[in-house]
């Protein structure tokens, strides 16, 4: 990609992007505005992919809610993503960047 | 027809940024200017008033003789690209004057002219959004246009029948785009939305002729 585009993107990107990798169990703090009230809604789950680059980079977090898999994709540089805290690292760091195989697994085999 | 803010630019590509409320704004990055005023068209002499600007200074061997001599007479450098922009009045413009991206302000509504990407000779599906035939069940009519008329009466194809044609590589104007950011130092403009043409394509940016308020 063009250097000019990259320079332009830099000014829109967060300077201190929280450090986390695929496989980490993270707590995403997402800002929600209800009327005039602002509150932070956490979403806890496992990071299964990073996608894109620059300002448009996103990551997907997967968790199991009432036995059903739920995935949410967040824009990494969005002002609404206030913070991403790493709750736990995987015991065995996966050797691939996209952890889609976790979708087919349940229970113990879905743990890394 | 008449406009006071104008500039030549090169399209650099697209990106996006977030507003405070988290909404995403898609923008095209333009490397705009610097442009030099290389000539003025005066109503008394030329019958209309316009400003001729040059973009991208060129070495002598890249410019043809008439343009070179014209630039010499005007006392300016020769440029690769020359364009005229109509203005209501000429006062304020002088030959040799430099224009850069700071002529625009954030929030300005502009019309953008570019040359769209060439698609070569395109069939009816790409050119006119025709439907495609079945690929299976023995069909031979997959990307063909189908019938183009009737029979002995009228015995001809009506004018305007949509057919395959050379598509793209044509001058296209996009009206009422909003300038989202101006970087005078680097000569950059960020314009909301897409702009016709490939990266590095020549773009004309000018204040909108019929500005329309945009929904947020």
Largest sheet of chain A: 5 strands, antiparallel
- The count of β-strands of chain A is 5
Query: What is the general shape of chain B?
Result: globular
Helix content of chain B: under 10%
| Spatial sequence of strands, sheet with the most strands of chain A | 4-3-2-1-5
In terms of quaternary structure, the protein is: heterodimer
Compute the separation of the termini of chain B in Å.
27 Å
Count the strands of chain B? 12
What does this entry look like structurally?
The complex is a heterodimer of chains A (112) and B (216). Chain A contains one helix and five strands; from the N terminus they run αβββββ. Chain A has one helix spanning 3-12, and strands at residues 25-34, 37-51, 58-65, 68-75, 81-88. Chain A has a five-stranded antiparallel β-sheet, with no helix packed on it. The longest helix of chain B has 10 residues, at 65-74. Chain B has three helices and twelve strands. Chain B has two domains: 6-114 and 169-207, Double Stranded RNA Binding Domain (2-Layer Sandwich); 119-167, no CATH class. Chain B has a six-stranded antiparallel β-barrel. Chain B has 216 residues and is mainly beta. The model of chain B has no long low-confidence stretch (mean pLDDT 91). Chain B is globular. Classes of the chains: A mainly beta (112), B mainly beta (216). At the A-B interface, helix 1 of A face strand 1 and strand 2 of B.
Explain briefly what this protein structure is:
The complex is a heterodimer of chains A (112) and B (216). Chain A has 112 residues and is mainly beta. Chain A has one helix at residues 3-12, and strands at residues 25-34, 37-51, 58-65, 68-75, 81-88.
Please give a handful of descriptors for the protein shown.
heterodimer; A: 112 residues; mainly beta; SH3 type barrels; 5-stranded antiparallel beta sheet; 1 helix; 5 strands; globular; B: 216 residues; Double Stranded RNA Binding Domain; 4-stranded antiparallel beta sheet; 3 helices; 12 strands
């Amino acid at each position: 990609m063009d250097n000019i585009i990259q320079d332009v993107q830099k000014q829109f990107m967060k300077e201190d992007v929280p450090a986390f990798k695929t496989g980490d169990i993270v707590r995403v703090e997402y800002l929600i505005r209800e009327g005039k009230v602002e509150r932070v809604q956490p979403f806890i789950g496992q990071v299964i992919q990073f996608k894109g680059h620059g300002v448009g980079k996103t990551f997907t977090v997967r968790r199991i809610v009432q036995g059903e898999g739920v995935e949410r994709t967040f824009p990494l540089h969005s002002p609404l993503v206030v913070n991403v805290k790493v709750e736990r690292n995987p015991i065995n760091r996966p050797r691939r960047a996209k952890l889609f195989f976790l979708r087919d697994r349940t229970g113990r085999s879905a743990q890394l | 027809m008449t406009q006071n803010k104008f500039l030549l630019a090169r399209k650099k590509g697209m990106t996006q940024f977030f507003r405070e409320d988290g909404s995403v704004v898609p923008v095209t990055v333009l490397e705009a200017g610097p442009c030099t005023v290389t000539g003025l068209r005066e109503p008394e002499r030329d019958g209309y008033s316009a400003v001729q600007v040059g973009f991208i200074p060129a070495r002598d061997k890249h410019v043809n003789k008439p343009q070179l001599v014209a630039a010499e007479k005007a006392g300016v450098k020769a440029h690769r690209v020359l364009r005229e922009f109509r203005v209501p009045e000429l006062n304020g413009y002088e030959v040799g004057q430099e224009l850069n991206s700071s002529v625009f302000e954030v929030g300005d509504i502009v019309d953008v002219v570019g040359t769209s990407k060439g698609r070569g000779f395109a069939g009816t599906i790409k050119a006119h959004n025709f439907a495609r035939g079945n690929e299976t069940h023995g069909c031979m009519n997959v990307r063909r246009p189908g019938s183009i008329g009737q029979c002995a009466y009228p015995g001809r194809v009506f004018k305007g029948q949509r057919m395959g044609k050379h598509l793209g590589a044509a001058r296209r104007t996009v009206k009422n785009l909003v300038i989202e950011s101006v970087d005078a130092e680097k000569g950059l403009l960020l314009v909301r939305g897409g702009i016709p043409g490939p990266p590095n394509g020549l773009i004309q940016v000018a204040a909108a002729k019929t500005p329309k308020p945009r929904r947020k």
